[in-house]
Amino acid sequence: MKSRFAPSPTGCLHIGGARTALFAWAWAKKQKGSFVLRIEDTDVERSTQKSVDAILDGMNWLGLDYDEGPFYQTQHFERYKAVIRQLLDEGKSYYCECSKERLSNLREELIAKGEKAMYDGCCRNKGLSFDHHKVVRFKNPTNGVVVFNDAVKGKISIANKELDDLIIARTDGMPTYNLTVVVDDHDMGITHVIRGDDHINNTPRQINLYQALNWNLPEFSHLPMILGSDGARLSKRHGAVSVMAYRDAGFLPEALLNYLVRLGWSHGDKEVFSLDEIVSLFDLKDINKAPASFNEEKLLWLNQEYIKNATPEYLIKHLEWYLNNQEISTHNGPALVLVVESLQQRSKTLLEMVEGLKMFYQDFDVFDEELANKQFQDKVPLKALVKKLKQLDTWKSDEIKIIIKQVCDELGIGFGKVGQPFRLALSGNGNAGNIDTVAELIGEETTLKRLDRAIKYEC
Ligand code: GLU
After folding, report:
1. Which of 23, 204, 212, 232 is the most exposed, having the fewest neighbouring CB atoms within 10 Å of its CB?
2. Domains of the chain: which residue ranges?
3. Residue 195 Cα: closest atom of ligand 1
């Protein structure tokens, strides 16, 4: 068993592509087969190295490892030419000299008559020979029906009279998608073609090519579209569609994979899947026929679940990228593991976590003015707090908590009246978790220094 992911490098790895890759990958893993990555870069004008790199980075970040490849179609031109030659020699394809003008007139005529715009086979029996102005067309069978059993969509039949003679080589000799994909899927021994259903109309044409070449057919699975919140096909205008934009926004790869696997596939009511579970439970037959809707809220919820349940060590491995990016050094300050632990339950994304951990390793310049003017108005609670904190023997959160409580009791005020200014004093913006834990982690010296600064704040 062998599946493949065959992206065209004309942009980043997007959500839809990543889902296709994940399904093909999961099916290969489940079947103990192999998974191939093939870069379909024959459109040299639109393909870029930058996109190739973006696809490889995306696959790598997601952890979708491939057993073979990456293969590049541009390295197979000789092979495609040989197959086109063979089809010409066997009389299964032909040179066509129809001009663009003729084809566009034909198209308009057919449309005007309310018919399907198709090539009329004008050059099919002319026996034309090669020259640089001619394309090569495949002689699609003129009668009969192409029938295949799509693992997702079920039985599909298309009458051959609905299909025209497909161009398999352009005037410059460049092979076209339907030809290259068939040659490579055959040569690479692909048994399962899993791809977006935007290709479903190509499949009958590809099947005719397989048959003309006497090659075995793979099994086809066409995945339903992914829709944006407005019901239109997911695209850039719905927000981030690039996989790496989700990395940048602080998502964990496992959370994104978990989210993607549920886009068009389900296993009962289960929502949270480890990678191992994805592999063991995934089945092509459980893919929905209907389109799936992309829901960023749900992705965020899953990300939070993953952050909550991960080990701090695992989170630190992923946090490193953001810390390097923002040049945050965590060497001078509390152990990162402890800080991460203190933030895990309250961070929806790794970016939020990075924001939250800054106060432990960096000083801030100014207090949030609006909050400070409110919370630092009355200096009495902060002064009482400092006085008691200075008498503490052991700088531990439990002790600090008791002191906060004592201040509240002595002044006859609620916890918020002490906790809030304390939190603002330490964080600068009020965004901090358990204030006693935060104070313990920040340490006695910094805590007292920041409290002092808060007391001196002029409202
Ligand atoms: N290269 C095609 C694409 O990116 C996919 C071809 C296929 O999976 O057959 O849309």
Report:
1. 232
2. 369-455
3. 8
